[in-house]
Specification:
By secondary structure, this protein is of the alpha+beta class. The chain folds into 3 domains: about 120 residues, Jelly Rolls; about 170 residues, Sandwich (Immunoglobulin-like), CATH 2.60.40.150; about 450 residues, Cytosolic phospholipase A2 catalytic domain (3-Layer(aba) Sandwich), CATH 3.40.1090.10. It contains 15 helices and 39 strands.
Amino acid sequence: MEQDGILSQGLITKTAGLEEEEVTRLNPDGEQQTPATKIESSLCYLLTVRVIRARNIHQADVLSQTDCYVSLWLPTASTEKFQTKTIKNCKDPVWNETFYFRIQSQVKNVLELALYDKDVVTQDDHLFTVYFDIAKLSLGEQVFMHFKCDSQRQEELEVGFALDNISGPSETIITNGILVSRKICCLEVQVVEKKKKKKKEKKSLSKKEFSFKVQGSYEGTQDITLGSDLIFSSSSPAKFHYARYKQPTLDVTLPGKKPSASVDKGFDLHMKAEDCPDHLDVRLGFDLCAQEQDFLRKRQKYIAPALKKVLQLEQDLLDHETPVVAIMTTGGGMRSLTALYGSLRGLKKLNVLDCATYLTGLSGTTWTMSNLYRDADWSQKDLNKQISEARKHMTKCKINSLSLKYMKYYKKQLCQRKREGHKTSFIDLWGLVLESLLHDGKDNHRLSDQQRAINRGQNPLPIYTAVNVKNSYSTLDFKEWVEFTPYEVGLQKYGAYVRTEDFGSEFFMGRLMKKVPESRICFLEGMWSSLFSLNVLYIWNLSHSSEDFWHRWTRDKIDDIEEEPLLPQKLHELRTRLFTPLGRLGSALRSALTDRLCIAQEHNFLKGLQMHNDYLENKHFCRWKDTVLDTFPNQLTQSEEFLSLVDTGFFINTSIMPLLKPERKVDVILHLNYSAGSQIQALNQTCKYCSEQGILFPKVDLSEEDRKNLKECYLFDGAETPGAPVLLFFPLINDTFQKYKAPSQKRSESEMEDGKVDLYGCCSPYSTYSIQYTEKAYDCLVQLGEYNILNNEELIVQALRTAVARKRQKRK
């Protein structure tokens, strides 16, 4: 694209100064919570960076000394990367160049100073990057830092810093202590051309196209095309939404001009910039949303009488005595879909289903859940109709799903989805295949439609789970929990949520910019159960619990480095670190190991938001802080264009994490396990994870005999971990069901064959990858799931009694 007349200006608009305001919310039991969101008037500072010199830079070229330059990147202040001039053939380059940044004092500002060796033929060699936290600096002081990059070769980078007050009003920010939303403006640009027509001159048919760019804005680049009227202007202005204090510039490319040409005086540019409202469409907070709190009050009317009946109490339970009970499931393809129906029917027969507040799922159990919540009163029924309907689809021939007719349908739906504004992938095709496997024809159901099934509190609140991952990292190195309810979709770690009907739409700095139609639920099911998002490291982890072997060659080399002078230690500062890039071989190996076959991507609703200066001290962030990038704020999720979502089973085959949010106050968890292979692996992984994260969870202690021969149910009351929920663990095994068709009802000789359910043998019909069951196989698995619940009624009642007693004791 040829450019001419690059117009760069600070886009300055009127500032609305607000005093600090706190939004206070109440818990469902009326207790006051920590303020969810703060609106603050916060100062901006002027950061001066002087790149002085480097010493003893090692030789990267074969035939000459290095040709060094330094790249500066501070994404919280400017989207543009700056760089010094190149000093040729010198191991001790001197630059003495100064750069200026306007920074927000409440944002975590980490400056990246990257040293490169310029190459004419090949790509510039990246020697190292220094990460320097601006929070180390004190206001009004000037310091000269010596970064010791390699002690053996005595490599060193010398940089001067100064931090000063800046004239002008302070900036209004909105923050939850982890994320910061900054003031944004909307710039409108309109082109007007006035030209007199000469006599006998033919009307010009040519069109003129202008290109405008505000780097770092939501829109990026906009084009305006002018027609050939005598007096004309663009029909609609180009609009740009940008962070007001992030050093924005407007670049203009004029039509038919070379870069050296001057601006044609016949064109007028009309520009207008206005502040955007401070209202956010992303909810920043850690409390439950208003709709979920309202649901909890309504659900109480069902739970209290149900618990009274199950526990055979003489008096009604008071609100503070009523425990929060959750049903938690694991994935397992069609096996988990089928077995969950049986488990829920068993809980219904025991009246325990009406005691549950939450029902969580991943992978195959999300298919069952999304089927059930089409019926607004499903848990008030005996479930036989739903089980029969699922049986029809589980036993039908699946070959039609790959017919030419369906292929045309898939293509049409994918094209429509792309036109709507979604980013499509093979995962979307998998969702459409699931739709054909589990339904008759097109299913228009959407997740937000499930609000009808909980609007009176008549069913447990469904929570679906996924994890957000990152390119070039395994799920052990980087994963972030994502939860989906009919009300909201959010990332627990950041305390950021959007309305379910807005998930997939485009956001910038917490504001909804472009509404994209809500996805049909089949596309979410494809993502929740994305078998095709695996990589080589996941396969390695199936048999090994550590990636140390691969990390030796594939993990980034990052070291804390010495610096002079030693600045006074501050609570919220990050250590200065040195990043040394992998060689070409290491990068290629890393790519081969971590690249996923395909992945579901959705527009990132955190886009544009920035990390708060104290985010690492925030207790909510620390609870879920477990990735290699948590101390690299420039590389966290808010900097990504898209969320990359995969099946939770690629980390741990569990949907328990949303239930461990303290705000949900879950007292009892019924852990329904449908995993293949080891029945206790996912539970052990959960225990280990919670221990490392400091999350309250009961100690799971199974004897060696139990590990070899599992029973149908185990009760872990968490007595040794005060505050932990009571856990009822139901492995999917065939134990006493072989001899009993119902609790205390032995099988006759003719019925013994029905009890021989081969769950995990080499000839088992219940493989995770099996998509079709026989009628007998389906019926047996449903009956087994139901039986294992009914046969452990005593333990379930014991767990509920323990929870009620603890609630009463806590109140006292």
